[in-house]
Amino acid sequence: MKKELQNKRELLLLLFELNKAIRFCQQDEVIFENLTFTQFFILDAVIKNEELRLKDLHQILSVEKSTTTRLIEPLVKQGLLVKETALEDSRVVILKLTEKGEKLYSDAWDCVSGFVQAVGERLPAGKKEEVFGAVKIFIKALQEACLCE
Q1: Is the separation of the CB atoms in 31 and 42 below 8 Å?
Q2: Average of pLDDT values for 13-20?
Q3: What are the Cα distances from residue 143, in Å, to 60, 62, 108, 136?
Q4: Which of 36, 68, 71, 130 has the fewest CB atoms in 10 Å of its CB?
Q5: What are phi and psi of 106, to 5 degrees?
Q6: Phi and psi for 56 in degrees, rounded to 5?
Q7: What is the rounded (10 degree) CA torsion for 28, 33, 38, 40?
Q8: Confidence band (pLDDT; 50, 70, 90) for 28?
Q9: Strand runs (DSSP E) across 14-126, as ranges?
Q10: Where exactly are the structural domains of the chain?
């Protein structure tokens, strides 16, 4: 019983430390020029798909529709993204990167890539795949536990 409690506390501490370590991803801190990490992630999702339905972005970000709208509006105002109406359904909003958005994304990627490389270099040699696999399993467990609540 004591070991079970110790394991629960250790997991709780791990969750707390993980939350602290990735908190910058959820804040409005600028990572490049006036682009936040979340905004960069949005541009990345759009560029990866060439265009992205707003509904799909809600699911990718796992946030409310109003939050997604709040996050993309500055990108639209800066001329980095455009919102278009889908030809097949006028209720569907599609996001596309502008030329300016592609340029900023490319420049920001250089900055983010350096950070990602620095994190990767700090993982034990020969253990990256193992670490990635373990983190994926952990994320899935968190997601499933949250759905049960």
Answers
A1: no
A2: 84
A3: 13, 11, 29, 11
A4: 130
A5: -60, -45
A6: -70, -35
A7: 180
A8: low
A9: 30-32, 35-36, 52-53, 81-85, 93-97
A10: 2-112
- Structural element, H or E, at residue 19: helix 2-22
Nearest Cα residue to 97 out of 55, 44, 61, 57: 44
Name the one residue in this structure whose structure tokens are 């996001």: 95
Q: What is the CATH number of domain 2-112?
A: 1.10.10.10
Is pLDDT at 4 greater than 90 in this prediction?
no
Is the pLDDT confidence value at 13 over 70? yes
Spell out a b/e string for 85-119, using b for 16 or more CB atoms within 10 Å of the CB, else e. Answer: eeeeeeeebbbbbeeebeebbeebbeebeeeeeee
Distance of alpha carbon 143 from alpha carbon 59, whole angstroms: 13
For the entire predicted model, the pTM comes to: 0.76
Phi, psi of 43 (to 5 degrees): -60, -40
Please, are residues 98 and 80 in contact by the beta-carbon 8 Å criterion?
yes
Contact 105, 112 (CB under 8 A): no
